[in-house]
Design goal:
The structure is a single chain. The chain has helices at about 20, 25-60, 70-75, 100-105, 125-140, 185-205, 220-235, 250-255, 260-265, 275-285, 305-320, 340-360, 375-385, 400-405, 415-435, 450-465, 480-495, 500-515, 525-530, and strands spanning about 10, 90-95, 115, 145, 155, 160-165, 175-180, 180-185, 210-215, 245-250, 270-275, 325-330, 365, 440-445, 445-450. With about 525 residues, it is α/β, with parallel strands linked by helices. The radius of gyration is 22 Å and the shape is globular. The protein starts with 8 loop residues before the first strand and ends with a helix. About 50% of the residues are buried.
């Protein structure tokens, strides 16, 4: 590693059991080195992101494929790196937080890949962040187990899933680690600690340090990640190209730069993923005040078969396969229950969704629960046969224009009182769970994460702002939405009882759904106070 620079590293969080094994002086120095080198560029890119968002919201900029990179899109000669060990076959991927139980269950689920999530499925308490690092540290060394309350002990089996860690996005900071008094990039904390402790161990086991990159909005943000990878590999003395990344295309702006993102990361990239829920949020965030043509119906009605969503996913498959990258499908969030009839209906919907993805050429897809792994695997087994992927399916038939990607009106559907109330109900339940330390919450038989709160509250904001009429002709006003909020709050409170954070959840919903602006719930005052707690 390069010589130590002259800066002060401070750890403000509490010292938990074994935390010192992760927060070693050398590991912190590595994270600080990365943050110091790239902090300026990160800030510039976030400023550019904000400026672009403001211009899109105001109608001062139109989204289109970049003219300055047209030569990259039209050049058939370049491809990405070949699949890395353990990432050749990705037909089923399971996602979930990095707590100890999920770590063992995900690795034993039968999925090919586990997305070990420090992002949307993790409530970023200091304990969760460092405990998650410890769980991955132990799992990679095959030194982890979990014992249920009934006393049954689980250990990792002989063929665990390949771990792909997802750090938090560029827009977030980790306030419990500071350099000269300023908080460090949360992306680099999650990435740096995991890479520092595990890269050599993973490579020795015939695998490698693999990552999912969330919330990218441009190819210049991908370029920043690539430069981080280059420096990190150099600092640790591991071979160039050891790191592999899969990028989530979950913003409308990134959908216009898929070729460019792959090009920037070409020696480190494995594929792209269709992050459907955050993608919908991004559409509303950027075009929510553009009138009725951009007003989406109830969340449940915005399926992957509506034209603008189908255009985005088919373009993703075509782009990936022309460059030798994997295309990974979206989330099946259903959680099996004890109700056989409900399960049968839900499993049928999941099967149809995965059949659509496999038929479109995706190489694999996501599930949120081990019970869905067999369904997803069976569908992709039927299409793949003995092949590990569908990279040979180039989808030459796909032609997608900027107008296709922006044809939000094609979603059709309607906004209903039931849909409004469902958004409010789910947002309250999720934010309550999140504030109490749970980032992946089972709500109404679905596994919900931070994207849920974003979609739920931003849809309500958009409907109010546009005076959207419900199915009975009543316009959704601020007053009516507040009435629904109070009624849903009373209902949820009666069910959950004491010991919750529902008042805080209501305050966050009010700030981010009923106000004039549309901030992320992750930028609210309640969120800031929460992260500064030394937990």
């Amino acid at each position: 590693m390069a010589e130590k620079l002259n800066y002060r590293i401070e750890v403000a969080g509490h010292t938990g059991d074994r935390f010192a094994e992760i927060l070693t002086p050398a590991a912190l120095e590595f994270v600080a080195r990365l943050d110091n080198v790239f902090a300026g560029r990160r800030a510039e890119l976030l400023d550019a992101r904000r400026l672009r968002h403001e211009k899109l919201q105001a109608g001062e900029e139109q989204l289109d494929f970049l003219p300055e990179t047209r030569h990259l899109r039209e050049d058939p000669s370049w491809t990405v790196a070949p699949p890395a060990p353990g990432l050749e076959d990705r037909r089923v991927e399971i996602t979930g937080p990095t707590d100890r139980k999920m770590t063992v269950n995900a690795l034993n689920s039968g999925a090919k890949v586990w997305l070990a999530d420090f992002e949307d499925a993790t409530s970023p308490t200091w304990h969760n962040v460092i405990d998650g690092q410890l769980n991955l540290f132990d799992a990679i060394r095959r030194n982890i187990d979990f014992t249920t309350e009934a006393g049954k002990r689980y250990t990792i089996g002989d063929e665990p899933a390949t771990i792909v860690a997802r750090p938090r996005g560029w827009h977030l900071v980790e306030k419990h680690i500071r350099i000269d008094g300023r908080p460090v990039s949360a992306s680099l904390v999650d990435f740096g600690l995991y890479l520092f402790h595990n890269a050599r161990q993973l490579l020795a086991r015939g695998s490698g340090p693999y990552f999912y990159l969330p919330k990218l909005e441009s190819h210049t943000e991908a370029r920043l990640w690539n430069d981080v990878f280059l420096l990190a590999q150099q600092e640790l003395g591991i071979p160039r190209g050891s790191i592999r990344a899969t990028v989530l295309i979950e913003t409308i702006t990134a959908a216009f730069e898929m070729d460019e993102i792959l090009y920037e990361l070409r020696e480190h990239v494995s594929g792209l993923n269709a992050g459907r829920w955050d993608y919908i949020f991004s559409v509303i965030k950027n075009f929510g005040s553009h009138g009725a043509d951009f007003v989406l119906p109830d969340r449940a009605q915005v399926t992957m078969t509506v034209p603008f969503m189908r255009s985005y996913t088919e373009l993703l498959v075509r782009t990936c396969h022309h460059r030798g990258a994997h295309a990974i499908g979206g989330m099946a969030a259903f959680i099996p229950s004890k109700d056989p009839e409900a399960n049968a209906l839900a499993f049928d919907k999941v099967r149809q969704d995965k059949e659509r993805e496999a038929g479109a050429g995706f190489d694999g897809s996501w599930v949120a629960h081990p019970g869905l792994v067999p369904v997803c695997r069976e569908v992709f087994d039927g299409v793949l046969g003995g092949w590990p992927n569908q990279l040979g399916k180039l989808r030459e038939d796909v032609v997608v224009t900027a107008e296709d990607l922006l044809d939000v009106a094609s979603a059709g559907g309607e906004v209903t009182e039931t849909g409004v109330r469902a958004n409010i109900n789910v947002a309250l339940r999720y934010v309550d769970a999140w504030l109490r330390g749970t980032g992946a919450a089972a709500i109404h038989h679905l596994m919900e994460d931070a994207a849920t709160a974003e979609i739920a509250r931003c849809q309500v904001w958009q409907w109010i702002r546009n005076g959207t009429k419900l199915e009975d002709g009543t316009a959704l006003t601020h007053e009516l939405a507040t009435q629904f909020l109070d009624e849903e709050l009373a209902s949820v409170r009666a069910e959950l009882g004491e010991g919750n954070r529902l008042d805080d959840a209501r305050a966050i919903f009010t700030e981010t759904a009923l106000g004039e602006k549309l901030p992320s719930f992750l930028t609210t005052g309640a969120y800031a106070r929460y992260l500064t707690d030394a937990r």
